[in-house]
Structures are given as structure tokens and as C-alpha cells.
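Re-run with default settings, no changes from the original entry. Doing this only to confirm the output is reproducible before filing.
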Amino acid sequence: MNIPKKIIVHHSGDSSPIDQLSKINRYHEQRGFDRSELGFFVGYHYLINKLGIVTRTKYDHEIGCHDAGENINSLGVCLEGDFSLELPTEEQEKALGGLLCDLCRKYRLTALDIEPHRIRDDTECYGTLLSDDWASKIYLKFELDYLRKFLTWCQINLQHFLK
């Protein structure tokens, strides 16, 4: 049973413009990864394509296969692309921000619980063009936007109530 205590963010390392879900699924099947309850061999829990479409490939309670030694009690999120050569799309950033907000709220995680694959590993993943705190900053930006909208809503409704 996987009880998420952190979120590990990856890039696919593939800059091809085509949807990569099938390619990653075949590759992970060839590597001997178990089939998830959702029918995928993908080692990540979530895959975000370049259009910002999020595909869930494992249930959160399933143990992933995305970061040797850190798969238990973590969630793996992968964005299509090679972020040593290109930046994520705006759509990917929006999708990642929303997903991280949802997951952090659900599992009571913070920005400090979000990290790139390269932390404690000999890899460039999630790419050399992105800082170690890039995903955490995306999360914090989305949380701040949510709080601003909530405060605006409170102000509007409080003014209406006091009239």
C-alpha cells in the first residue's frame, strides 16, 4: 500500500512532438514493470502530455516504479519532453500546478514534499533547464492564485452580507 509522503516529478527525456503515452507504456513493459490496476505498465502515477492533458496510469495507492529506492510512499508525475533541451509548455505548467494542488491537499503535503527525480539520484531528470525548486514554485503559484480568488470571493460575499 502506497501512502504518499512526497511527489517526485520527472520528464520523459523525449522531445518528440507526438503523444508519448504508448511509447512509455511499451518501454516500461519491456523493462518488466508490473501492470497497474488501470492496465498500464507505466511506472509513473500521472503523465502530462504537451497539450496539458493529464493521464492517470496508476492509482495513488499503488507503488510506482519511477525512482529506485523511493517508490514507496511517493507519487511519480512525468511531463512529456526533454527539459535539458526545451521548456515545458504553458499547458503542461497549468496542468502540473493543478495536479500538484490537488495531490498536496489530498495528502496534506507542502512545497517541500515536491522534488525533481534528480534529488538523491544520479540523473538530470527533470532536465537541466529547470531549477530544483521549479515544480514547487509552480505549485506555490497555483496555491497563491487559489487563495487570491478565495479572498476576493470572501470580500464580495461579506460586503453583500453586511448590506
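The mean pLDDT is 94. The CA atoms of residues 61 and 155 lie 39 Å apart.
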